[in-house]
Amino acid sequence: MDNIELTASDQAMLDGQEGPATQMAMRILVRMLPVFGAQRLMDVSAAHIDSSVYMGPATMEYAERLAELGARVRVPSTLNVAGVDEHGWSEWSVPADVADGAIRQMRAYEKMGCIQTWTCAPYQTEHRPTFGQQIAAGESNAICFFNSVIGARTARYPDLLDICAAITGRVPAAGLHLDEGRHGTVRVDLEGVPRRVQEADSFWPVLGILLGKVSGDGVPVVTGIDVQPTDDNQKAVCAGAASSGAVALYHMVGITPEAPDEATAFGGKAPPRVVKVGMDELRAVWREMSAVRPADGGSGVMPAGSTGVITARPAANAAAPGGGLDMVLLGSPHFSIDEFRRLAELVEDRKRHDKVQFLITCSRSVRMLAEYGGFMAPIEAFGAKITVDTCPLTSPMLSEKIGTIMTNSAKYSYYSPGLLGTGVVYGSLEDCVESAVAGSVVRDESLWEAA
């Protein structure tokens, strides 16, 4: 640690002159400098805290300890999802002790002055950062969206470190915070991908999963996009790329703010690596996004073209059209107001099948907007349930009777077999609604059929 350069303010925090909580946070940051390959710290002006996710007594006690020591965030700091929907957890299979611990953890972060957004999609709120703004963010999809779509700057901050950055207002000066860390590392050329495919909302989660697979923790630069993606399209790319890989930043040439052209995206250098992607590669990823529940410890991936049976509890469910279905699960990242508007149109005057649960996860603020806009009434009449501030990936809310879920989310499709122990079927939002009505899997697969 001899090469570390601290400012007078940094040293004062490290020496305890601003209280024990700030001292604790600064000690952790200084210890982490070599991990980030940095010699100094730099300022941030906002943060998004993923440490709000309850992972057991240890994360709760960490938060409570900081709060007891008098910790206060010194930059505006939004909160990621919590471990439970604090007002609706008892409607689900959440153990009471888990709910108690998660709510205690929520109170600790509130006490530290964090903003109670409770969402994995903070870019959908009024606290959305701006281009070039230096921030400290946890939550993988939010990190990717901040960097890629907005052009704000954050590294991938792990839980427990993000709150230290918020308390001190300082982060390691390295990686994606710096110009040189934001240059592309691989060019991903889309070739022969029809415009009708790119215009489909179900294309973007597939693209995201593919980018994660081919990029790892690199910075992909995508060429060949012929349409203007919406925020929700880009949200889907971020969720997929940060799930199947560790992508924290991607560039889309002519679309994202730091890639007006390929040369700019690569910092004036030649691409270190080039990957060609066509419909065959996208189709393969689309197939993999429907997975067998890995009860036997296998990979969980449905074989290409498979019409096999998903192992489920208590009976077998098929991922192929006509197969059994227990739940439709939407909203990872959290459902947006535009997604609520579209869903309301799709379910108007319709009813879900009695045997298929229909769950949407979103933030409390978006739910209020959806109610105000009149979108919630037809969705609730359809038979959907809404959970706010959390999701099944971070809350033990789903019954073991849920054997197969259907989703339009790259994140849910990627994590459900491993984290939830379910089979999963990926489809469009329209597919999800039609399947819920039919009581079994219904998918329009024409978009992905071989030319």
Notable traits:
single chain; 451 residues; alpha/beta; Aconitase, domain 3; Aconitase, Domain 2; 3 domains; five-stranded parallel beta sheet; globular
Number of helices: 16
Overall structural domain count: 3
Strand order of the largest sheet: 14-13-12-15-16
Low-confidence spans: 294-318
How much helicity do the residues have?
25-40%
Beta fraction? 5-15%
Radius of gyration, whole Å: 22 Å
Quick one: how many beta strands?
Answer: 16
Question: Based on the structure given, which CATH architecture of the largest domain is correct?
Answer: 2-Layer Sandwich
* CA-based shape: globular
Q: What is the CATH domain class of the largest domain?
A: Alpha Beta
Written account of the structure:
The strands form five sheets. A five-stranded parallel β-sheet has the order 14-13-12-15-16, sandwiched between helices. The chain has a four-stranded parallel β-sheet with strand order 8-7-6-9. It has 451 residues and is an alpha/beta fold. It has three domains: 8-180, 2-Layer Sandwich (Aconitase, domain 3), CATH 3.30.499; 183-285, Aconitase, Domain 2 (3-Layer(aba) Sandwich); 289-448, 2-Layer Sandwich (Aconitase, domain 3). β2, α3 (57-68) and β3 form a beta-alpha-beta unit. The protein has helices spanning 8-14, 20-36, 57-68, 96-111, 140-150, 162-168, 195-198, 203-215, 231-244, 262-265, 279-288, 337-347, 364-372, 376-382, 410-420, 429-438, and strands spanning 41-43, 46-49, 77-79, 135-137, 170-172, 186-190, 220-223, 251-252, 274-277, 309-310, 317-318, 327-330, 357-362, 385-388, 404-407, 423-426. α3 (57-68) runs parallel beside α4 (96-111). The longest helix is centred in the N-terminal third of the chain and has 17 residues, at 20-36. It contains 16 helices and 16 strands.
